[in-house]
From TrEMBL:
Pfam families per UniProt: Glyco_tran_28_C
Function summary: Involved in protein N-glycosylation. Essential for the second step of the dolichol-linked oligosaccharide pathway.
Organism of provenance: Lachancea fermentati (Zygosaccharomyces fermentati)
Tagged with keyword Membrane: no
GO biological process: dolichol-linked oligosaccharide biosynthetic process
Record lineage: Eukaryota, Fungi, Dikarya, Ascomycota, Saccharomycotina
Recorded family membership: Belongs to the glycosyltransferase 28 family.
Record's keyword annotation contains Glycosyltransferase: yes
Annotated ranges, domain Glycosyl transferase family 28 C-terminal: 90-175
Assigned GO CC terms: UDP-N-acetylglucosamine transferase complex
The entry's keywords: Endoplasmic reticulum, Glycosyltransferase, Transferase
GO molecular function: N-acetylglucosaminyldiphosphodolichol N-acetylglucosaminyltransferase activity
Reaction(s) the record says it catalyses: an N-acetyl-alpha-D-glucosaminyl-diphospho-di-trans,poly-cis-dolichol + UDP-N-acetyl-alpha-D-glucosamine = an N,N'-diacetylchitobiosyl-diphospho-di-trans,poly-cis-dolichol + UDP + H(+)
Protein name: UDP-N-acetylglucosamine transferase subunit ALG13
Length: 200
């Protein structure tokens, strides 16, 4: 049975540091040692060439020719153009954007690694998946730090900086499953949580 890490950087602003961290040998080795055999990387628009360069630069990754099918179809991925690589038995599927991210998370993710944008956080939490929210520290107002820390303090996710050691530590914690379950969106406690997160 396939065990999958789904990574989402969001649709608009690429998060190069997160992709670089995930493609470090020590991160890939940790992914392997924890029994994952597939990584789906949604890296954001306009980052395709850089993603291919990063993938090709990692010693041990075998890049497959363009047009090679991976374990998931273009229809499942929601994108006809994706890259396929292999790192010592861990399949790496990279794509810039998919309208199917929630379906991919729900159907395939055993753990989600996301940038700390509110929309991506909520997608993973609604699917009740273990979530590691990685803060994009290059953003000027550092709002992702506030969002990730608030959700972590409530027990919903693990917050990490874009460093291999942080992501690896969070992957180890995520082996024990999802943290607290997100309340129903129509419940006043959830409404209060969002208000506190947005305005604190």
């Amino acid at each position: 049975m396939t065990k999958t890490v789904v990574v989402t950087c969001g649709a608009t602003v690429p998060f190069p540091k997160l992709i670089e961290v995930l493609l470090e040998i020590r991160t890939l080795e940790k992914v392997r040692s924890l029994g994952y055999d597939r990584i789906i990387l949604q890296y954001g628009r306009g980052f395709n060439l850089k993603f291919k360069q990063l993938l090709a630069a990692v010693n041990g990754i075998k890049c497959k020719p363009a047009g090679t099918n991976g374990s998931l179809s273009a229809k499942e991925l929601g994108n006809d153009h994706f890259d396929v690589g292999d790192y010592r038995g861990v399949e790496i599927l990279g794509l810039d954007f998919t309208p199917n991210i929630l379906q991919l998370i729900s159907a395939h993710a055993d753990v989600v690694i996301s940038h700390a944008g509110t929309g991506s956080i909520l997608d993973a939490l609604r699917a009740s998946k273990p979530l590691i929210a990685v803060v994009n520290t290059s953003l000027m107002d550092n709002h992702q730090r506030q969002i990730a820390d608030k959700f972590e303090s409530r027990g919903y996710l693990w917050s990490a900086d874009p460093r291999a050691e942080d992501v690896i530590a969070s992957l180890e914690k995520a082996q024990y499953g999802a943290r607290s379950t997100l309340p129903n969106g129509f419940n006043s406690a959830f409404e209060q949580l969002l208000a506190e997160t947005a305005y604190s």
